[in-house]
TrEMBL record:
<dbReference type="InterPro" id="IPR027485">
    <property type="entry name" value="AMMECR1_N"/>
</dbReference>
<dbReference type="Pfam" id="PF01871">
    <property type="entry name" value="AMMECR1"/>
</dbReference>
<dbReference type="InterPro" id="IPR002733">
    <property type="entry name" value="AMMECR1_domain"/>
</dbReference>
<dbReference type="InterPro" id="IPR027623">
    <property type="entry name" value="AmmeMemoSam_A"/>
</dbReference>
<dbReference type="Pfam" id="PF02900">
    <property type="entry name" value="LigB"/>
</dbReference>
<dbReference type="InterPro" id="IPR023473">
    <property type="entry name" value="AMMECR1"/>
</dbReference>
<dbReference type="InterPro" id="IPR004183">
    <property type="entry name" value="Xdiol_dOase_suB"/>
</dbReference>
<protein>
    <submittedName>
        <fullName>AmmeMemoRadiSam system protein A/AmmeMemoRadiSam system protein B</fullName>
    </submittedName>
</protein>
<dbReference type="InterPro" id="IPR036071">
    <property type="entry name" value="AMMECR1_dom_sf"/>
</dbReference>
<feature type="domain" description="AMMECR1">
    <location>
        <begin position="291"/>
        <end position="461"/>
    </location>
</feature>
């Protein structure tokens, strides 16, 4: 026995009649599909249900597996006090999954659960399952802000433990799609919302899990999706397996996309190792990027790689462009891994004798000394993308009206407190956001008086 089937379901609490009080009738297709998969689960009679919820214990850099023997929850926060759920955990599965994740160097485990109550992303699916079948234990898993491919690799661990324990297992990936489908909806509308839902449901209907791995993260954030990482963990649990895919329903009358889909394992398929396909595409893409790097970025890469591999600080050479050897300036070196920030350290004004020295110093610091991240390791070096920002001279300004989020970086200062944000950053779309982030970095309240400066940069990639 192993993973028999997996399912994708939404989790709107109003789908439960005592909470929806009639509103649930607008999503009749979703309810019917939910009942169909619940009946199917009852036919399978799984020993363990692995359920992935975006509303379980969530950390930015750690996938949480709920520990313990059991847990309970209710829908009190949604105005319903009578419905209560209690589940037994599959402790053996959870502990082995945490151990395997550590062995595979995936940041996941059972640490850090303060609130042990079940979340609605877990309870809504189990409400439907319990209508037809109750003889199961669960493994409750969260998502994180780790990259898509790391979630996929974690899903592979789920499959390995299911095989090892020889249990009959199903996986439920709980998650809504875009929350930005209608102007009159609770979150408003953005054109990325319907596009995300269309492309996701098309991929699910075909079992095209590669498409899930290749969504742009900024696009997903604008679309305000909820469940993509849940779906990707589920996809990882089906790695190398031939599946029969079926999109049972899709609705979005409230401005939030609800999709129900099922995936039955029907065999082995060596062409469906999507992590290998993804890694090959990424390797080719990164090789092209490295080939096109200019002297600034190449110096940053060589500096960090030399220090990590050989514990040596490289020397600048006279073969570098003259402006790198004679000019002085503040420099920021930024690192990305799998599309996410991996480190960023810089200097507002020059602290060395040249731009080249500034790059060497700050590249090493970005990789090893950014307090937000663990130090870069050797296995990550070839996967990193670098950018080098050479800062122009800062000039004082009177108000944010003199800023341009794409053109100017900003410095905020109050006494000894100082915060800086570079221009033209992904996900920062307004000068108000730019200043707000800078104030937070500096530890300055928005209600306090502070000085503003702006600067331009030359960005090298």
């Amino acid at each position: 026995m192993s993973i028999i089937s997996t399912f994708i379901v939404p989790h709107p609490p109003l789908i439960i009649p005592k909470i929806g009080r009639g509103q649930e009738m607008k999503i009749e297709k979703t309810i019917k599909s939910y009942d169909n998969i619940a009946k199917k689960i009852a036919e399978i009679q799984p020993e363990t249900i692995v359920i992935i919820s975006p509303h379980s214990v969530m950390y930015s850099d750690y996938i949480h597996i709920s520990p313990g023997k059991k847990a309970s929850g209710n829908f009190r926060e949604f105005g319903e006090t009578e419905i209560k759920l209690e589940v037994n955990y599959d402790e053996e599965f959870a502990n082995k999954l945490a151990q395997l994740s550590e062995e595979e160097e995936i940041h996941a485990g059972t640490l850090g659960e303060k609130n042990k109550s079940l979340d609605h992303g877990t309870m809504v699916p189990l409400f439907f399952v319990d209508k037809y079948y109750k003889d199961y234990n669960i493994v409750r898993i969260s998502i994180s802000r780790l990259s898509f491919i790391e979630h996929y690799n974690f899903g592979k661990c789920i499959s390995k433990i299911a095989d090892e324990l020889n249990k009959k297992v199903i996986v439920i990936a709980s998650g809504d799609l875009s929350h930005m489908l209608r102007e009159e909806g609770p979150y408003g509308f953005t054109e990325e919302g319907p596009i995300f839902d269309r492309e996701t449901t098309e991929a699910l209907s075909r079992g095209d899990f590669m498409r899930l791995l290749t969504f742009d993260e900024d696009f997903c954030e604008i679309a305000a999706e909820c469940g993509l990482r849940s779906f990707i963990i589920m996809a990882g649990a089906l790695d190398g397996k031939s599946v029969k895919s079926k999109l049972l329903s899709y609705e979005g009358p409230y401005g939030v996309g609800y999709s129900v889909a099922s995936f039955d394992v029907i065999g082995i398929d060596d062409n469906r190792h999507f992590d290998k396909i993804y890694n090959k595409i990424e390797e080719e893409r990164l090789n092209l990027i490295i080939e096109k790097e200019d002297e600034y970025v190449r110096l940053a890469r060589n500096s960090l790689e030399s220090y990590i591999n050989d514990k040596k600080i490289i020397e600048k050479t006279d073969k570098l462009p003259n402006e790198m050897l004679t000019n002085k300036s503040g420099v920021f070196v930024s690192l990305k891994l799998n599309g996410q920030l991996r480190g960023c350290i810089g200097t507002i004004s020059p602290t060395t004798n040249s731009v080249a020295d500034e790059i060497i110093q700050n590249a090493i610091s970005s990789g090893l000394e950014d307090p937000r991240f663990n130090p870069v390791n050797k296995n990550e070096l070839r996967k990193l993308e670098y950018s080098v920002d050479v800062l122009g001279v800062a000039e004082a300004i009177e108000s944010i009206n003199e800023l341009d989020v794409k053109k100017y970086g900003v410095i905020v200062t109050k006494g000894k407190k100082k915060g800086l944000l570079l221009p033209n950053l992904e996900g920062v779309n307004s000068v108000e956001e730019q200043v707000s982030i800078s104030l937070k970095k500096a530890g300055i309240s928005s209600n306090e008086s502070y000085q503003l400066e702006r600067f331009e940069v030359v960005r090298h990639k």
